[in-house]
């Protein structure tokens, strides 16, 4: 089965492919099908935004579409940037500029505890909606460390491993990450759905 990923993010694609391929599911980026849908994320929760993105791409492609809406929630910032993580600091900033802004905004604040959330939505042409969610706890590092991964990975520190996400291999990150957890939960829901 082919699922169209409602995203332009290669990092998300790789993480999804590595977990869903065991189910015989092929995940392709919307751009590979020539689909250029960029919906406004008007939801107030991660799961609402995931559903909005998956519905739009399902409608445009006529194929089952999967979307992840994710973000970083920092306790000392009352859960910000949350659903605004991708837009933190405004349009046009690089990933590095966004996480450096977050580090600046954390100066003098405590605690540094935070969590990543990933909400997955999969929408089928017949309107069926499958959903799953995963959370990963960590802390905001004092300075970026590591070069792997994407987005805020260099500043997301896992105290138990004494490393940031950007210092983990893809397999290590998938094993503990919000998206890894959400995708494994989603894989179970999808398997049940395909059996029914
Ligand atoms: P979305 O693509 O609209 O869901 O936005 C997600 C935001 O959270 C982007 O800024 C991503 O870079 C960031 N993000 C989500 N998951 C991760 C991750 O696993 N590592 C680092 N940043 C992430």
What does this structure look like?
This protein has helices at residues 10-20, 46-61, 95-105, 170-176, 178-195; strands spanning 2-5, 26-29, 65-74, 113-123, 129-140, 156-158, 163-164. Helix content is 32%, strand content 23%. It has one domain (2-195): Maf protein (Alpha-Beta Complex), CATH 3.90.950.10. The longest helix has 18 residues, at 178-195. It is globular, with a radius of gyration of 17 Å. The protein has 196 residues and is an alpha/beta fold. The protein contains five helices and seven strands. The model has no long low-confidence stretch (mean pLDDT 95). Strand 1, helix 1 (10-20) and strand 2 form a beta-alpha-beta unit. The structure holds inosinic acid. Inosinic acid is lined by residues 9, 68-71, 85-86, 95, 116, 149-153, 165, 177, 179. Inosinic acid binds at residues 9, 68-71, 85-86, 95, 116, 149-153, 165, 177, 179.
What would the keywords be for this entry?
single chain, 196 residues, 7 strands, Maf protein, globular, binds inosinic acid, alpha/beta, seven-stranded mixed β-sheet, 32% helix
